[in-house]
Amino acid sequence: MEELQKNCAVVKKTAGKLAVTSSNCGCMEQELSVSIDPCGIVCDRKVRQAHFFMHQDHAHEFYELYYLVSGGCRVFLNHTIYHLTAGGIVLIEPGALHHTTYEMTQESERIALCFGRDYMEQFENACGSGWREKFAQNPYLHVEGRLKDLIEEMFQALILERKDGDAFSDLLRRQKILEILVFLAREVQENRQIRIEEVPEKAVQIGARYICEHFRESLTLEDVAGQVFLSPSYFSRQFKKLTGFGYKEYLNHVRLKEAGRLLRETGDSISEVARLCGFSDGNYFGDLFHKTIGISPREYRRQHRTQQKNSK
Hints:
Blueprint: E1 10-14, E2 17-21, E3 29-35, E4 41-48, E5 63-70, E6 72-77, E7 80-85, E8 88-92, E9 98-102, E10 108-115, H1 117-127, H2 131-137, E11 140-142, H3 145-163, H4 169-189, H5 201-214, H6 221-227, H7 232-243, H8 247-265, H9 270-276, H10 282-293, H11 297-311
Antiparallel strand pairs: 1-2, 2-3, 4-10, 5-8, 5-10, 6-7, 6-9, 8-11
Helix pairs in contact: 1-4, 3-4, 5-7
């Protein structure tokens, strides 16, 4: 097990499809409508009706390039809310918790391009290191005019080469991923402005960021709401409405993600890991970890160390 399963979907091949499993929704599987291919690429185009939203926590261990063809939506990603219109692009890094809600008044069309970490490694080998961090710091872009047409043409080429391809298609599709990353890197260097809305969304973003910075403390809803001068009940409602996650649910996600890192990278005791991640009760931490990950913290650490030894 490489990463936490809580809010980090498990990717597996099921009947030739790329299945994404979210552990806190009863292990229900949501299959993308296209088959996974030898390139490790999935490019999926869908029309979303008004009011559509993701019902469960969503994260995965591959990159996702989300592109809005038409309509409008709101994406919550790493304690920030992004408002997308046609031409909006969000690059979602592996393990990042995200949630999408679409406009209430119109249908929208989106393209989701999923690809493995190895493509980013190839890009960095060719263009220099540090791009993973740059993309993580600048995940949102908006393209217009000829660049918008070019991006959509590249997405469509990925879909068609998969559908009607020949012996050369795999190579072309691999190259398209790198080509898309080049265009995004150029836009990042131009420091495109991020569209972030004002209150109450600004308050929710500040609150989410505060959680990420103070999750090790004995943090309460009242503490976080007080940071943005809102009542706990109002902040809680707005947080759920705008991010798709309850306050406690999001706090636990942040804490468990850090717990997984400590279990993998340190020799700290289980009780010390719990304390460092903000859990005052070690038994509660163990129960929550087992409930969401499916195994105990001790077994999680053992499996990870076994995988490390086998990979050497």
